[in-house]
Amino acid sequence: MGKNTxxxxxIVDTKKDTVSENRKKMxxxxxxxxxxxxxxxxxxxxxxxMIGGGSDDPNVFNEKMFGFQxxxxxxxxxxxxxxxxxxxxxxxxxxx
Length: 96
Fold this sequence. Notes:
Blueprint: H1 14-24, H2 30-50, H3 68-90
């Protein structure tokens, strides 16, 4: 009868190696986090621009409530901040 001669070969579990490499890799890069916190700061600035303009006495009307800062500038800053946030989520670094 013949002998089963099999050379000693190293069997590598490629599935296990791939899983461990995927766990080490982060979803977002450093640039994504920088963009994320920049967008968050812009959003906070937009909300801070909306503060104020009220009156202590409900019988007195305050015109500052309908100023340029609260009706125009603040929403524009907020939209820019949310756009930066969306860009930060979808941005992929070009280096590998």
